[in-house]
Amino acid sequence: MHKVHTVPQRSDIEHAHAVIKPYIHRTPVLSSQSINKITGIELFFKCENFQKIGAFKIRGGTCAALALSDEEKQNGIATHSSGNHAQAVALSAQRLGLKAYIVMPSNAPPVKIAATKGYGAEVTFCDPTLEARESTLAQVVARTGATEIHPYNNYNIITGAATAAKELIEDTEGLDIILAPIGGGGLMSGTALSTRYFLPGAEVIGAEPENVDDAFRSFKAGAMLYNTTTDTIADGLRTNLGEKTFDIILRYVDDIITVSEKEIAEAMRLLWERMKIVVEPSSAVPFAAVLKSKDRFTGKRIGIILSGGNVNLNDLPF
Amino acid sequence: MHKVHTVPQRSDIEHAHAVIKPYIHRTPVLSSQSINKITGIELFFKCENFQKIGAFKIRGGTCAALALSDEEKQNGIATHSSGNHAQAVALSAQRLGLKAYIVMPSNAPPVKIAATKGYGAEVTFCDPTLEARESTLAQVVARTGATEIHPYNNYNIITGAATAAKELIEDTEGLDIILAPIGGGGLMSGTALSTRYFLPGAEVIGAEPENVDDAFRSFKAGAMLYNTTTDTIADGLRTNLGEKTFDIILRYVDDIITVSEKEIAEAMRLLWERMKIVVEPSSAVPFAAVLKSKDRFTGKRIGIILSGGNVNLNDLPF
After folding, report:
1. Which of A49, A190, A243, B29 stands 20 to 30 A from B286 (CA)?
2. Helix (H, G, I), strand (E, B) or coil at B161
3. 3-state secondary structure A96-145
4. What ipTM was predicted for this assembly?
């Protein structure tokens, strides 16, 4: 894999898809007759909850790790994360025989710490603030010479994330609209690019929790605005956009729909009850947007990226 | 489909499978690398939680309904059930254009009542005792002339249930052992028959909650013994065997393993967390048996029937 230095092109995504293939699952696209009946919409769910590490993040992690030079590879890769990105970087490194250094906040869930260590990563703990995470990561990078892999503001991460929508398009006929959740914007911008390249007639819509609607407000204003809170059950979507992801979203996303915490919980519950699959709250956000704006989608064939399935079963929002 | 009047033969199961095919899903067989790593066992899960109505029961219900004479079909079908069998009979009837009469205890979960009515069945409520259920059903049958479809002590039900293991065997290479949960014994006896016919070298093991271990004790004693309680979270396994299912289990099942309530809950949790699928407690019982007796299964290729995924998300056992 090469380093992608600008907005990923069609050929970048095609190449990335070919080279990461041995390291990822081609996850299934599932439908539910009962959900289609309830909604009057034909829905196709790309199940990245069944992906390795339980989330789409392994796609970008692998794409970024493979793009390192031999010299960079010798020093390994590093990131700060309390969630899925930590495991993606750790597993990508393990599969490629690299060292991984992960900075995690001291209050990260024990199960995620154990999983990250289980992939052979060296974990450094810090205070649970963004400042502490960044300064600790800087120290780790200075000490080890490892290359930082940003969770979303990185064109190789975006290129890898784009392969999920590429597969959804390849495996589903005649989609009219594709939706994805927006957190830092890696999945959303990758989804928008793949839709433009591989299904140019289709609409691309993002979905975001009302409580952390930086992307919605930035999109309307045409300038980056920031969240003032991280207060949402959709723990994967608490971050702000980066300038790389915002630029792509502004150009290639058609619309953004926001949803309430209650709407997210109800959509999540419906997915669990009817489809019998475990998805994390972030995954339910685009489906919540569809349920909220049913009339807009009636009779259409809608593709939704279910981003992951890593959820604390003792802290469900319903 | 013909009526099966004695222990189902290989040809009965093959024929049933062909005729019910348009009415059922061919559910996937899933594996989890992380569960295989934890256990040191290669496990293959037949996901009947993704089946229509969320459980394997639609297989037997369809097989039994299709076997009715034209005269019987005119009067419809009837059963008493608070759970998956009610929905299986209701949906089978709807698909075949028959009337369905379901007796449900007054304390049945509203979601199951709604689902049964949603399939067009006429629901009659009764007190929540076996006596009231049977006497109310007798009244309904006397009034309507409908044919009673027993949930498990019926050779067509057993024949239909057997098609799940047949698919598992067809879709998985080289299984050494197949496990299923035991409640009334319909799924277990069908699984044992399909294994004998389609994979004669493999072992067949049943799994049962310790708290309702009538099958385990009956199997050891060689005579039918009964539960004195229904106190288990595995709500699909609270019933006693019938004489038809007991006879098949005694002859064709190699062993029965019992598990505690705690072991069931832990196995269920592991399936949810690692496989990202929603299964009901009954489904987790065979996996709990494997976890409990790991040494016995090490290095083997094990097939497990996950019987269903209908669970109350507000009353999880973990």
Report:
1. A49
2. helix
3. HCCCEEEEEECCCCHHHHHHHHHCCCEEEEECCCHHHHHHHHHHHHHHHC
4. 0.93
**Cα–Cα distance for residue pair A131/A148, rounded to 1 Å:** 16
Nearest CA in chain B to A318: B314
What are the helix and strand counts (H, E) for chain A?
A: 14, 10
Q: How many CA atoms lie within 13 A of B45 on its CB side?
A: 29
The answer to whether the Cβ–Cβ distance between B279 and A278 falls below 8 Å is no
Interval A263-280 mean pLDDT: 97
- pLDDT digit string, tens, across residues B41-67: 999 999 999 999 999 999 999 999 999
Strand partners, B308: B55
Instruction: Tell me the residue type at A211.
Output: N
Residues of A in contact with B313 (CB under 8 A): 269, 272-273, 316, 318
| Chain-chain contact of A318 with B318 (C-beta, under 8 angstroms) | no
Q: How far apart are CA B252 and CA B61, in angstroms?
A: 23
Query: In this complex, do B277 and A273 lie within 8 Å of one another by their Cβ atoms?
Result: no
pTM exceeds 0.90, yes or no: yes
Q: At what angle do helices A214-221 and A243-252 cross, to 10 degrees?
A: 60
Tokens at residue B186, please? 């319909």
Alpha-carbon span B193 to B155, nearest angstrom: 12
Round to whole Å and give the CA distance between B109 and B127: 14
User: Rounded to an integer, what distance in angstroms lies between the CA atom of residue A130 and that of residue A18?
Assistant: 35
Contact in structure between B60 and B24 (CB atoms under 8 Å): no
Helix H segments across B70-213? 70-75, 84-96, 110-118, 130-144, 155-171, 186-198
- Residue A234: C-alpha distances to residues A60, A71, A262 (Å): 20, 38, 11
> Contact A314/B318, CB-based, under 8 Å?
yes
